[in-house]
Amino acid sequence: MKKVLLVIFSCLVAASAWAGEIVPQFDDGDALVDYTAARDGVANPADIQALNPGSTITFAAKFTPSVADVTEESGPVAVIETGGTTYGSGIWICNGELHYAFRANVSGNNDRTFNDFEFADGAGAVKMGDIEAEQEVKAWVSLDLNSGIVLSSVNGVKRITYLDTFPASTNLTGNRSVSFLTDGSIIGGHMGGLNLSVEPLLNDSNVWGMNPVAGTSLRGQIFSQVVDPTLLPNDPTPASASLNIDPDTFTEVSFDAAEDPENAGSQNPDVTGHFVTFYRGMDGDPNLGMTPLYETFVPAGADPVTVPINTPETFELELGQEVFWGVEEQISGAPEGDPANIVGPLWNFETLPATPAAVSQPENEAVFEGEQAVFEFTFTSKTAASSAWYKEGEPDFELLQSDPDITIDLAQNGDEFTSTLYVDNAEIADQGYYYCIASNTAGDTQSDSASLAIKRMVAYWPLDGDYQDYSGEENHLTPYADPIAEQWIDGVKPAQTGQALDTTVNREAAAATDPFIAAEYTDELTISLWINFPGSDDYPAAGHFRGICSSSSDNNWFWEIDQRDAGLQVNAPGYNAYSYANLPLDEWTHIAFTSSADEVAAFYINGSQIDITDPGRYSINQNNTPVYFANNNGTIDTMMEAKFDDVRIYNYALSPEQLAGVYYDVTGEQICVAPNAENLQFDFDGDCTVDIDDLAAVSLDWLNDMLFPVAGE
């Protein structure tokens, strides 16, 4: 769950001689850069120490924005940033709000908008807070990739954001150029975490420099360290941003006291008690100016510290209520509000709404034709409830049980309901997105949409003297030049695979399909083919990579070979290539790769899996583009000179066993698909079978020992 905590600090630690002007927890002398006047990074490159790879960085700025800065709607206004066209991050004014944007990818992710907490895909953005024109701003933001925490402060009001996905480290300073405010005009070249986002206020083509109020004090800093959030009250229960708290059963909150700065993991010994305050929230606003719901003091004690609530003596929870609460750590008996106290995060939770509240959402389904697809939506309701299922379309339409292939069940267990949709005899016409609407007397709640896909082969090119698709999907290939008789040769095993295509005699025998979405509704893909690669060609191409099978328009996906050394690689959105093997020369070789919905790619040579990526390392888009065969994008430079046979594309990730079967069907050779399986631990001769030969290997050492001293001595 995405979590954003507002944090209001009076003071983290007692003031000291080295406390920073903007970031009190830092020594200003530790800043990597420290400016007191506006600065153009494009004109002054490489001004910051490289943090590459890096895991921690903090930006800090003091400025007084003008009315124009705060009201600019066409694009982001620069505060302080570092980086170039590939890597970097920075603070930006976006129509009166401060946002921290970060980027670690050369291209793509242009659908990134505000509050994008997915940094693993190369781009993200986090709101820091609101600012006002002609009012001094002191703001800072810390990014810690060790924990995925973005901690920020705007005039003492702080937010903690937990990134959903993030790398352990990246190039945090990019090209090492730093801009602070600049000169109030469009400033090309300043990136600092921006890209060509569909959101104009995060688009690097729309950047403005700042026009701060004349004569006001300015300061911009970047540090390689981060502010430590563990020195605050922490670990609240319920977790901050929790939803669907049941007012009928919920009776207390709890938290751990702030930690000792000198002894991590232990309570701060100076904490003598906890001032705890609860506020009524609305639309994410804690309404700090209103009278608190409840205030209490809890003496210091062991963690977790508990606070009873939801009673006539405290305050009572209601359906559809948002509650904010915070803890001010009392230091050495000081009164509430004393600057020595530690004021921690302002956490929040929401009670069950009066309308149905989602508990679990429908999940994507991919089944074979004729199988049953099942979708479930679980929700709570304090009153009687009903449900209906819909399929997205133009317009959306309700699924009715008068259809013999549709069944809808609604099961109740106390306040919890589960609505289940069964789609029997699934077929291609059933593909699409489905959602549920749950209803009670207070209103309706719509579930997330989930996809239904039919798993199948979406292209099959035997290359038996033609470019036709025999999968039934009509994704035929069209060559770039008229075919010649010499390009059709005997295949891998002519009796089984028929003919093959030889592009060494006709480079432009390469081909492409009309646009289609190979991974539609599945986010998965398998490509399988036989190839005989003779080695490097002598074509005077600008580059060395030749396409095997690709859909590289719109940066979709591609599979290619380095013709110099037969190195195989795949790519995905972001052009972050993954190389995995070198192809044997002058022999028929079966190669395949799969891409799964959990963003894992697996690679096969001659039926055996030889490599697999970590989750999140490889992904594909669902763009409607041509598939290019024996080339990358229709250019003659990327066309490949080789022999090809039996090319298949599936819209799902085949298993190792299934791909071993594809290989076996041609060669008759068995493949050991799991040589490290637990039940093969005694396969001493490596033939993928535990048999008498392995027992014989053990018997050679029967009764051998290394005991000392020898018995009888």
Strand content: 35-45%
Q: What is the rounded Rg?
A: 31 Å
Number of discrete helical segments: 4
Fraction of residues in H or I helices = under 10%
- Look at the helices and sheets and give the structural class: mainly beta
Record field, number of beta strands: 47
Describe the global form.
globular
Question: Which CATH architecture of the largest domain is right?
Answer: Sandwich
| Assigned CATH class of the largest domain | Mainly Beta
CATH overall fold name of the largest domain: Jelly Rolls
Unreliably modeled segments: 7-18
Mean pLDDT equals 89
Oligomeric composition of the shown chains? single chain
- Let me know the largest β-sheet: 12 strands, mixed
Distance between the termini: 68 Å
What does this 3D model show about the protein?
The protein is mainly beta and 713 residues long. The chain has 5 domains: 3-227, Sandwich (Jelly Rolls); 230-351, Sandwich (Immunoglobulin-like), CATH 2.60.40.10; 357-454, Immunoglobulin-like (Sandwich), CATH 2.60.40.10; 456-667, Jelly Rolls (Sandwich), CATH 2.60.120.200; 683-713, no CATH class. The protein contains 4 helices and 47 strands. Strand 43 (589-595) and strand 44 (601-605) form a beta hairpin. The radius of gyration is 31 Å and the shape is globular. The relative contact order is 0.09. InterPro entries: ConA-like_dom_sf, Ig-like_dom, Ig-like_dom_sf, Ig-like_fold, Ig_I-set, Ig_sub.
